[in-house]
Backbone:
């Protein structure tokens, strides 16, 4: 659910985590820009999953492998541990069953990477304090016309991870300029990026 | 008249290639001295790298695009897809259509004379397979000086040939466009084929397949076979919206003449088809479909069957296609993903059922066009 005008500063952060020549599955891959970037920068072998006709077409134009389908229904086709990384870039907030999608990410991939707009960002809080749902670069939709049904804050996401056996490996929080936020990330960061794996206790051998 | 259609390849001339070396067939026998009818559109480039093979489905032929100078209304069966500026752009690609072995449009088939008897082969023409067809197509490519196809493309049974190419001749296929295809037929698919075959074989005019000698043809059987087939090409919704319960003459006659529009339509399709198609060819092509199952040699494991493939794939299905449903295409996609092959898959939301692969649909055509753009860019690089 990419805001088309939004600068995708998360691409470079994600690329910095991805080992060369890795297999990457991008769920909700939009026009395939991230996969193309990862292929060019990291030699990734990538596939995207995308439901929208126009975006599937854009992927083909971009020379990116794309599988048309609903990421909430079609991930069963991907074999266990068949990817090094499964990426969910700015899509977590738009899926119906966030828990199931994250679980599937960690079945199909050795590691998962998610990015999402931080609802706890101070400007969003100001909007709400002013009596309105936020509309911003990161969340560019009116409440009545939005794909985002599960917006969350950084604190919410980390609570979710510890409750559902998701072991966070790395986190980068960014502001709107793409700069890294270290101080009070849940207040000052607008975009959160996580790399995670299954918590060791849940890894079956 | 021809010049009015600027996007047509215009008047084309079918050609024939002769093969004298025996072709080993999957059934165990071999076949010597045959001809394949084919057409080409566009120009083969100096590097001989821009050739695209288009494989036909059940009832089509080598006449894929354009028309004939003496028959301007005889338009190729995929003319909306292939031509100058069309998704498969003949300004950039050299496109080949071929009538398969056993066909009835100019290639050697049951209608051709059996050299041993001087009479038409009829029932004695061997039962061929997708693999045999692909082998024959490869020999045609050799004659045309094409070592490697930029792409092999087909819909339905044509998709099966494209898939088989990537297994049989992996080094000779750059891309495979597998449209409205399936990795094999379901029991239901085979059942429909068997009804069609029984309609033909039990027609008193069939004469065990040697009807040519009796100066007759099993027209009634072929007509019913086509009517059954045609039902499977359309979706329930498409039939409902096109015909519904419309009556031909506005009222019921309490008789067995044509009353509903759908009856009239099916009879028309059946009559037309039985005029121009040969029953022995039809029987054999239904067997070609039934037998295709590349995974069979690998205990049903399609991923293993597709392991030799090095082509990049575009797999396309249509949501209302119940003959070769999207699930069947996704089996192919899954196998390709298991093998880490390059693959893109699109599921086109179209109302027309299996026939959608032949129809003009903007989402479908712009996708195929984009895919061929990408192939053209690769060739230019």
Residues:
């Amino acid at each position: 659910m990419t805001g088309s005008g939004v600068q995708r500063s998360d691409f470079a952060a994600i690329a910095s985590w991805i080992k060369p020549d890795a297999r990457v599955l991008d769920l909700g891959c939009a026009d395939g820009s991230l996969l193309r970037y990862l292929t060019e920068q990291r030699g990734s072998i990538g596939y995207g999953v995308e439901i929208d006709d126009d975006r599937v077409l854009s992927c083909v134009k971009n020379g990116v492998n794309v599988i048309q389908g609903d990421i909430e229904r079609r991930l069963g086709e991907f074999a266990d541990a068949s990817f090094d990384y499964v990426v969910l870039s700015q899509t977590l907030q738009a899926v119906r069953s966030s828990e199931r999608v994250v679980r599937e990410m960690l079945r199909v991939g050795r590691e998962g990477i998610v990015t999402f707009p931080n609802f706890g960002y101070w400007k969003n809080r100001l909007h709400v304090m002013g009596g309105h749902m936020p509309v911003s670069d990161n969340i560019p939709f009116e409440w009545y016309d939005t794909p985002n049904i599960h917006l969350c804050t950084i604190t919410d996401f980390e609570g979710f991870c510890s409750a559902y056996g998701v072991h966070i490996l790395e986190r980068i929080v960014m502001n709107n300029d793409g700069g890294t936020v270290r101080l009070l990330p849940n207040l000052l960061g607008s975009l959160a990026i996580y790399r995670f794996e299954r918590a060791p206790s849940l890894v079956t051998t | 008249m021809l010049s009015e259609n600027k996007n047509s390849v215009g008047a084309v001339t079918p050609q024939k290639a002769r093969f004298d070396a025996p072709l080993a067939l999957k059934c165990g026998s071999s076949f010597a001295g045959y001809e394949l009818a084919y057409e080409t559109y566009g120009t083969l480039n100096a590097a001989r790298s821009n050739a695209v093979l288009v494989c036909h489905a059940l009832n089509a032929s080598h006449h894929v695009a354009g028309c004939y100078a003496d028959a301007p209304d005889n338009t190729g069966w995929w003319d909306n897809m292939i031509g100058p500026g069309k998704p498969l752009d003949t300004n950039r690609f050299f496109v080949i259509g071929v009538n398969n072995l056993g066909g009835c449009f100019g290639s050697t088939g049951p209608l051709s004379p059996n050299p041993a008897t001087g009479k038409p082969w009829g029932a004695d023409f061997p039962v061929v397979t997708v693999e045999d067809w692909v082998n024959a197509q490869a020999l045609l490519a050799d004659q045309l000086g094409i070592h490697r196809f930029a792409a092999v493309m087909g819909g339905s049974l044509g998709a099966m040939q494209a898939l088989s190419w990537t297994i049989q001749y992996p080094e000779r296929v750059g891309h495979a466009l597998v449209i409205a295809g399936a990795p094999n037929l379901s029991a239901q698919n085979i059942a429909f084929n068997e009804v069609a075959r029984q309609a033909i074989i039990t027609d008193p005019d069939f004469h065990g397949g040697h009807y040519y000698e009796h100066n007759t043809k099993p027209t009634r059987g072929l007509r019913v076979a086509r009517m059954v087939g045609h039902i499977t090409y359309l979706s329930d919704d498409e039939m409902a919206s096109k015909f519904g319960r419309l009556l031909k003459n506005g009222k019921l006659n309490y008789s067995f003449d044509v009353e509903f529009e759908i009856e009239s339509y099916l009879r028309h399709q059946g009559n037309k088809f039985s005029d121009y198609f040969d029953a022995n060819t039809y029987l054999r092509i239904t067997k070609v479909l039934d037998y295709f199952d590349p995974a069979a040699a690998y205990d049903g494991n399609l991923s293993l069957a597709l392991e030799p493939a090095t082509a990049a794939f575009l797999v396309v299905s249509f949501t209302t296609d119940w003959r070769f449903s999207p699930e069947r295409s996704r089996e192919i996609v899954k196998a390709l993903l298991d093998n880490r092959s390059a693959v893109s898959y699109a599921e086109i939301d179209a109302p027309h059922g299996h026939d959608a692969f032949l129809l003009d649909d903007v989402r479908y055509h712009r996708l195929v066009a984009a895919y061929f753009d990408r192939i053209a860019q690769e060739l230019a690089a």
